[in-house]
User: What shape does this take?
Amino acid sequence: MAALVAALFLVLLAGGAFLPLLLTALPGAGGRLTDALGDPVIWRSLRFTLVQAVLSTGISLLLAVPVAAALHEFRGFPGRNHVLRLFALPLALPQIVAVLAIVGLYGQRGVWSRLAESVGLDFPSIYGLTGILIAHVFFNMPLAVRIALGGMASMPAEYDRLAHQLGMGFAARFRHVLWPFMRPALMSSASLIFMLCVTSFAVVLTLGGGPRATTLEVAIYQALTFDFDVVRAILLALVQVVVTAFAYSLLTRAGGSVSSGFTVGALRPFAVRHTPGGYLAAVLVVSFGVLFVLTPFVLIVWRGLSADLAGLVLQDSVRRAVTTSLLLGTLSAVLAVMLGLAFAAGVTRRAAARRFSGPQTGAERLFGQMSSLILVVPPVVIAAGWFMVIRRFADVYAAAPVMVVTINAAMAVPFAIRLLQPAALSAAERYDRLCRQLGLEGFDRLRLVTWPLLRRAIFLAFAFSLALSLGDLGVITIFGSQDVQTLPYLILQRMGSYRTQDAAGLALLLCVMTMALMMIADRGSEPNRAERTDRS
Amino acid sequence: MTGKEQALACEDLRFRYGGDSAEMRFDCAFAEGEITALVGPSGSGKSTLINLIAGFEIAVSGKIRFGESDITRAPVSERPVSMVFQENNLFSHMRVFDNVALGVAPTLRLNGEERDRVEAALVSVGLAGYGARLPGELSGGERQRIALARVIVRRKPILLLDEAFASLGPALRGEMLDLLSSIHDERRMTTIMVTHFPEDARRIAARTVFLADGAVVAEGPTGTLLDHDTAPDAVRSYLGG
Assistant: This one.
């Protein structure tokens, strides 16, 4: 029942944005609809969306393969676990913060560009495809590394030993031993990265260089806020949904999951003696990866500390934005966890009915599809749809808090459910019969069994949902106003008015908030005494 | 069944796992205070039969009688039954004491006398002083002892064991059977144990029911039924050698 209500909520949220739009806007559009189909903006945005997504995916994977192979080969590498932790951070870093750092590193007066200039090299402009690709690779290369390592962690322990016993060199080992395990993981990460890049909004909004470098999502935003062209916005939204549905089908066929890369696969320690050349090559490759991922963080801290942080914190607008971000983020995370739990409960109940064996029932598959609905209809599209619906009946900006909370919660549901569902299923599979026999039902079962077993997953889901919501710059860009401003929205405003120092200070503040959440979640995900000793 | 009073009876109990699976049909009775072993090849319906008695499966037709009461459709927790599974009998996140105490009150709100009962049960399974430990800190045999301690505090008249000791080594299994036997002598619970080991049945079960293809094929005193010289053909073929 709860799962049905949650599914209905998501269907209404996603579908509700679309249907009234189509019904009200299209009849009035008349012949403009056919004209709009020939609108060059639509096709140019579509082409750019696909081109940047394909290039971002390709470059991310190309760089991830050697880094993952080096990290796998050198498991005794000092600081390897720190590298893996570092590679988890970009996923939770708000896009607007990363963009600021990337501009500071690769922009016209950036650290790397000035270094390149000093040796006579010409660095291309950061605005446009180049900047978008750098930002996307920063976010996705570490993700691909973690997924590839996860794939290789499933390799039987004997394979490595056998390969070394047989005297295979690195090339032979990579081809015959590593690659077969890395390839499926890379396939699934390729489709995941493609999906993330197709729906990337904040990066393209800030680094996109005008009409030539505009994706479908940014074009929807521009059509609504600058051109007031509802018909174009609808068509763009429809094309976006078709593209994301295609990307989502690729993702599900590749066997990927939106939560891939959220956990570090623990590798068995296996001390192998490597040649000095091999060791040096691995150190160089890993150092490149670390440098590429770490430097933006260093820059965020450095630039942030150079800003007048005390002055910023005293500003009313900043304090309001922090409070608004935390309040809306917390509500959104609570809602995401509740929706995730409702879906998990629905699937678990049905799995219990089929005694946890055999293929999934239709209802279980349906709940799975519904929970991922938000991936097919991206948040910006939903926000744009509801913006046009609400403005016909009420003050659209007054509805901002509700829309930000609900859409961000829906955005976090696929992540939340993938953390909650396995825990719920495992708890039920192990203990359902025992609970029923002991008469442990209702609140007692919740208090004594369900909560202790799901607490970690709930905690993680809440932290990830909150981090996602804190960094959101999609929904708030459409619904934000002077009255409702979040921290990312304020950073965007300060960037727009060339108050770069302020933006850097606020970026550090936001970065600290999300990173603190990630660290808490990381701690929270460590097993407690009972879980460490659980062998039953 | 012998002259003892009948505690539990399955009368024309029919069950099907769904789809085009074959229908199982059970007709058998269990004497009060006796240990009965259920033996038979894999897929013969042993676990299905005790899951029907425990209420984890619901029969399509037929009756399960406990004394004068019909418990065929009674809720699981209201049946006069305690069951020990092969694994996952204990909640891994709860202390041993709480795992046993759940058998007294699912709310875990216990008065002094009830707490004493739990401690006494731990003493009777030889694990006094283990109350503060977590299940993961115990061996497989110790975990099953704790499950038996909970059976003791539950005071249900019927005990079902679904290959409860199958994952233990031979020596430990023998120890557990001896413990079960002493608990049984003291409490006189009607005990039904599913086992793959005929020697386990010979060790403690007064009677044995032999199942094949979802039905009771033979039953009788264990000594006779599981003896190569006196066993019916179907049982002899199962015993081999």
Q: What stands out?
A: The longest helix of chain A spans residues 400-438.
